[in-house]
Each structure stands twice: as structure tokens, then as C-alpha cells.
Amino acid sequence: QPSSSGQPSESGSTKQDLQRYEGTDFPWSKELQKQLSAVFQLRSFRPLQLLSINLTMSGRDVFLVMPTGRGKSLCYQLPAVCSEGFTLVIAPLVSLMEDQLMYLKAIGVSAVTLNASSSKEHAKLVMAGMTQQKTPFRLLYVTPEKISKSKLLMSRLEKANQAGTLERIAVDEVHCCSQWGHDFRPDYKLLGILKRQFPKVPLIGLTATATSSVLKDCQKMLCVPDPLTLTAPFNRPNLYYQVRIKENNSEHAMDDIAKLILEKYKDQSGIIYVFSQKDAEALSADLQKKGIVAQPYHANMEFADKSRVHRHWSSNKIQVVVATVAFGMGIDKTDVRFIIHHSLSKSIENYYQESGRAGRDDKPADCILYFGFADIFRVSTMVVMENVGQQKLMQMVAYCQNLDRCRRTVMASHFDEIWDDDDCNQMCDVCRHGNDYITVDITEHAREAVQVIEMATSMKEKVTPLKLTETWMGKGSAKRRKMVQVTTLSRLEVEAILAHLLQQGYFSEDFSFTPYNTIVYLKLGRKAALLKNDKHTITLKMKRNSPISDSVKMSRSGSSAQTKGGKRSGGKAGGTPPATKKIKEVL
Ligand code: ADP
Ligand code: MG
Ligand code: ZN
């Protein structure tokens, strides 16, 4: 009994059973090989392609998880070409379908689509073709909306099923079925109707990123009783992962990025992902001023402009696209040397997918993420409507703050992958720069920050993250300064601590909706009460050579005016007596 979990090689019986399906002695094997080279002009299969094709052609339901650009489409296109009837393909975007149709047309495969802009005549022809003995098209592409909204289509599918011409169902970007996935589409949830109506028609679901819990959810949504899940190795050995701390209210990140592009990535192709349309335009204009050939890309641009930017970037007329996540699906440029995130992604899945567009040619490429405190809250207002949005974002924050685990290990454990740290080969900042961090005790700081919130609450006020930062740092009114224990930590230290407390559940977010925007406040979280216990400690790992740890080691003079307590602790700077409470190094 083949298992539906994990990699095929994980369990003995599964492995044996699957090995059988990697063979070339099936009734369709000769035809496959022939069309692979005749139609697709390809010499050999990539890992998992033949296996999934044989499985789907044997009538099994398959979920295929394979990084973007590795060739998932072939796994349903080649079976379609080798079949008499047609394959129903569900894809989320009309633009994606059009790309595929263009490609299929170019290689001489007959494929059609039905979408909102199809003419009546075209729809009629397609509907009629569906039940012809050898259907006039091998693939029929539709959006999930079409399935859920068009009764006519459903009734034609019924007829096709009776006539035996509905060979196979392919659900592209299958993770869109699950609210746990990073790209949930409500209409995908209704696709369960397909397996319920056509239980004998094999279904193949494809995605680049899905955790096993997302896949379980998809299986349920699609009503697939017992699918085989094939997972390609998630590791991209040629990508170097790095997180850089982004300073607040400064041009720092932008200068840093411009310098990288002008020097390290001179003449090389890349993408900068930004949070908003406004950021895309602003950052792109800034880069242009520095002589970099950059263009913005976001969802609100005219279709023609989007397609021009995409084309010019693909042909290297544009070096850098400064884009929102709208720039994604359908990118097949292989020589992308850098993917820079100007602010964090909304989840680790999203980050993996976005950064994974680098280095598809298997040559080294960099994935750099700028992590800024304020960005956390910009993203959290964006995902506020998503069920598990905050939870996923906090996992992303933990990834960014992580200093002691290989970045690949963090991702692997997120995707339930088995992973050995050594396999990173120093291709992440943590592995390369070693364990150059210190563990500091931030319990007292946490208590202070909690007091700021309690003080505000007692005055029936709410605090935004910015207000909390500034009040704690003594930038509020004199009255406020008297009411709280002002910290002498640097801004970056304060932000690192607050982000950690939020991510650990000492704080939580409190959203307030106005007609124009969403405001985030911070309130005490489920773990805040633990701080009432004297024995409770909170530690945080901080970089030794960052501005943060410099101020840990050095005492700061001139800041004592802001402090009330002025407790002396054993600072490490010889000579200068520490004026205020410092971060305590515990290890
Ligand atoms: P995915 O859907 O996994 O992101 P695609 O199906 O769009 O990837 O394929 C990406 C690229 O890989 C395409 O240009 C395709 O022609 C190429 N490709 C697919 N299979 C093979 C193969 N066996 N050998 C070489 N190239 C392949
Ligand atoms: Mg694809
Ligand atoms: Zn590593």
C-alpha cells in the first residue's frame, strides 16, 4: 500500500512499489519517449517526471511537489499528448494559461481555454469538441471560477466522462485549495466537485511549495481519497541565503542595495521584492537616479506595461525589476543572480517561492532579505484577513531573527523535510559566519516594555509599535517619561527585543479598522503573565559584531539623563562605568 506521505523513499514498501513505476515497459512507454523528443524536443526526464507520468497514466491520483521551473507542466502535458481524449487543466491565472497555450501552440499541441473573455462561438466549439471520439484538443484550460460557476461546463464534463473522453484532471498550483497555503483562492475550495462527480478520472495536483499539512488539506478539499505524494528535494544548493537588518527611517537599505547592484551584481539580472506599489515606484526611481536600469512592476499597472517590463527584463534590457509579489508566476528566466527582499515576505512558504526564482541555471545566486521592525506591521495589516496570517508571519519573523540555525534547516523543518546542516555547504549567512552571536538575558527589558503597555492601558490609551518604541526610549512627553522606565538601549536593540517578544507571544497585535486603513496596536499577549514570576527568564540571541552587540559591550555616556533607575550592572567596557541597565550576556 503506497503511503501518501513524505518522499517516496521514506518507507520500504512505498519505495518498492514506486520503483515499479519508474520503468519503461508500460504499454504507453514507447509513445512517451517518442513524443518527449518529437513534440517537446527534450532528451530525457528530470527527477520525478517519469514516475509521476507513469502513475497518472496508471490511473493513480498524484500530488507532485517540485520547485518552480523544474518542469511540472510536462507531467500532465506529455500524458495529454499521448492520449485520445482531453485533459482538464485548472490554473489560477488567465495570464498563466495564455503563456501555456502559446507554448503549446508553438510546439504543435492543440490546446484551448474557456474563460470570461471567450467568445460564444469559441465556447460552443469547445463544448462540442469535448465529447467527440478523438477530441480536437488535447488540453482544456479553465480557471476554478469556471468550474464553480458554469453549469453548462459541468454538464459537458459529465457527458465527456460518459463518452470516456475526459482522460485526466490536472490542478496546477494545487496549494491554492488550502487556507493553510500561502495563496488561498476561495474558488479552489469548490473543486472537490470534480472527484465527487468523476471518481474514476485520475487527478494530478501540482505545486512548488506545500507543507504536508497543506497537502492533507488539499486532499480533503479535492476529495481525493488516497493520493500518492511525490516531493522533489526542496534544497536549492546554489542559493546563498542571507538576512540583513534594516534600519528604521533611513535610506540605509536602499543605499546598501544600490551598492550591491552597482558593484557585486554589475551587469547581472535580479529582482527586488518590495511591500507595496508605492515602494516599487519609489525604490525603482531611486535606483534609476544612481544609474541602474530598474523598472517597477505591480498589479495596478496596465497589462501592456507589465508585459513590456517582463519582456525587457527577460532579454536583459532591464537589469532589475522592483516588484510587488504580483511579479511571480510565469517567470522562467534562468540566470537571475539575485533576489533581494526589501521587506520580509508574509510567510516562509512565500519567501521560499519568491527567493527560489534565483539561480535556475544552477549557478550561484544570492537571496538577501532586509528585515526591518516596522515592516512586520505593514505585512501584518495586509494579512489580517487571512486565517493563519499572523501565525505564518511570526514564523517568518523567527526566520529573520534566527542567528544560530542554518537557514536551510529552518526552512526544512518548516516544510517537514529531513535535513542535515552540513549539506548547506556554507551557503547561508549563519553557516558561513559561524556562531558569532551572544545569548543575552532580556527579561528585565521585557518587563519594562510590558510596563509601557500597562501604563498606556491604565490611561485608556492604545500603543502602536512605533509609540511603544519611542515611549520606551524616552521620546514621549516629559509626563510619560516619568511614568515609565526609560531604556538606554539603541533603537535596533529595542526593535529586536520587541520583535522577539511579539513573535514569542508576550505581545500580540490588536487591529483597528478605519475606513482608510488598518492600524496595529500592541497589547499584552498570552505569555505576558509569565513575567510576573521572578524566576521566568527570556533570552535572545544577538549578533556579536552588529551595532547591537557593540552597544552591549560598550557603555553609553550621555544617556543617563533619560533614565530613572540608573541601575549599575557589570558592563564589559573596561574603564567607563556603565551608566544604565545594559543587556546582560548570559552565555
Ligand atoms: P514548473 O511548472 O515546475 O514551474 P515548467 O513546467 O514551467 O516548470 O517548466 C520549466 C522549464 O523546464 C520549461 O522551460 C521546460 O521546457 C523545462 N523542462 C521541463 N522538463 C524538462 C526536461 N525533462 N528536460 C529539460 N527541460 C525541461
Ligand atoms: Mg508551473
Ligand atoms: Zn546554512
UniProtKB/TrEMBL annotation:
It comes from the Eukaryota. Its EC number is 5.6.2.4. Residues 1-18, 542-587 are annotated as: Disordered. Residues 1-13 have a biased composition (Low complexity). One of its GO terms (molecular function) is ATP binding. Its main location: nucleus. Keywords: Acetylation, ATP-binding, Coiled coil, DNA-binding, Helicase, Hydrolase, Isomerase, Metal-binding, Nucleotide-binding, Nucleus, Phosphoprotein, Zinc. It is found in: Nucleus. Pfam families: DEAD, Helicase_C, RecQ_Zn_bind, RQC. CDD domains: DEXHc_RecQ1, SF2_C_RecQ. Belongs to the helicase family. RecQ subfamily. PANTHER family: ATP-DEPENDENT DNA HELICASE Q1 (PTHR13710:SF105), DNA HELICASE RECQ FAMILY MEMBER (PTHR13710). This is ATP-dependent DNA helicase. It comes from Synaphobranchus kaupii (Kaup's arrowtooth eel).
